[in-house]
Design goal:
Aspartate Aminotransferase, domain 1, globular
Length: 209
Amino acid sequence: MLVECVQGEGGYRPAGRKFIKTVSKVSKKYGFPLIIDEIQSGLGRTGKWWSFQHYGITPDIMTSAKSLQVGATVASNKYDPNESGAVSSTWGGGHRIDMAVGLKMIEVIEKEKLLKNAEIVGKYTMKKLNELKEKYPTKISDIRGIGLMIGMEFFSKKYRDLVELNAFRCGLLTMGCGVKTLRIAPPLIINKDEIGQGLDVIEFCLKRC
């Protein structure tokens, strides 16, 4: 079974803890592999190296890419006992330069303590976004996420697209996901002041639209 602990293109929706725990137990009971897609949620985005760590489980197979620079599939020995390593050419490249960049990315995240930063700034961002939700209850329908992987959902796709367009015109680059959700996924190095500047732009758009 292939699952995302936090949906990416589906709308930045964290799965329920009970659901993920149950899927893990069922996979072990019936002997099928549990595959976790960490392409968007991995490498510190949620405040931990991998989103599944928030759920207290260990998958049999994990996929990663994007922030890692190379497309990678990591499997337990049970499912890939003879693999000794290979250079791939999947998403994001796969040659040795890409691998070196991916390794340096991991080193920087550790050195700069960016997992902790994603956790702290993520909680701050969620708090501020929920304040906006209370202030604009007829425009924002939901705020959800983990770390710096946050979804801001509106009551219609048309309105979401309007906010996204106006934010871009004000110099803030965002991107939609799901049907009517705006993804809030800033760099892991971002601080509270910079988040505040971005949220000021979003509020300006909420007032204007």
